[in-house]
Amino acid sequence: MTTTSSVTVVGLGPMGTALAETLLRQGHSLTVWNRTPEKADALVAQGAHRAADITEALSTSEVTVLCLKDYDTIYRIFDTDALHGSVLINLNSGTPAEARAAAKWATEAGADYLDGAIMVPPFLVGHPESVFLYSGSRDVFDKHQATLTTLGDPRYLGTDTGLAVLYNTALLDLMYATMNGFLHAAALASSADVSAETFAELALGWFLPFVVTPSLVEQAPDLDKANYPGTYGTMEMNLNALDHITRTSVEQGIHADLPRLMKAFGEQATTEGYGANNYLAVFEIFKKRAKA
């Protein structure tokens, strides 16, 4: 599983850049393309090739990894005439229906297509235990599994192209529900002047074996300091994920009020000035409601 290959990465936001840097470190021949060319400067300095246009980006490598904002962005960027014969591995986020539509679009244009989802933040890309989900073409997965393994732990879920984003939204749904439960409970305890750090030691020590991760224990002191750095994910990024959870719930015929409620908390936090902070800033919203 150490074979190197030629890879193109399209989309150089924080996650796309992390993917590209990892591929370079692992010895792959890397081509990059971004609508803002300057975002590729650091990667070019490290040895990547900057494609002049999207057609060159597709034709230069054996496989093209997409890391764009959403599925609609793909359709705006790509000329379908240039897709014929290419291999696309899409790591955008969205809903299962959007994933299936993208697979149909790619297939009709003569491209092979695999959909995927990244289950870790950018700084964990490249770690062997970092989970990446894939669904769709088994042939594409098998042929490029060695390359995918250099990014993390690739999990193939099945031939239904929508499975990767469905699993992604289901797991994120669990994460946000757990996080909101802790934040609301900590806000309730704070009404009696109990610090989040004090509450977390007892509450998570009791609850941890069942659901909650240790990261909330580590972040509890930041709640008391109202410190919610958006370094690894802003409220805006989290609202994008919550929107996908909500739309997927509707699409799958599942009650959507819980993700709608979680999204509403994030929207209220953004309205009150926490848009550049991480999702834990919702704690401030819960505290205000507890005092009301």
Question: What would a concise description of this structure say?
Answer:
Belongs to the HIBADH-related family. Keywords: Oxidoreductase. The chain is built from 13 helices and 8 strands.
Fold and architecture overview:
- Pfam families: NAD_binding_2, RedAm-like_C.
- Residues 160-288 form the NADPH-dependent reductive aminase-like C-terminal domain.
- Residues 7-153 form the 6-phosphogluconate dehydrogenase NADP-binding domain.
- Belongs to the HIBADH-related family.
- This is NAD(P)-binding domain-containing protein.
- It is a single chain.
- The chain is of the alpha/beta class and 292 residues long.
- The protein folds into two domains: 6-161, NAD(P)-binding Rossmann-like Domain (Rossmann fold), CATH 3.40.50.720; 166-291, N-(1-d-carboxylethyl)-l-norvaline Dehydrogenase, domain 2, CATH 1.10.1040.10.
- It contains 13 helices and eight strands.
- An eight-stranded mixed beta sheet has the order 3-2-1-4-5-6-7-8, with helices on both faces.
- The longest helix is centred in the middle third of the chain and has 28 residues, at 163-190.
- The protein starts with 5 loop residues before the first strand and ends with a helix.
- The model has no long low-confidence stretch (mean pLDDT 90).
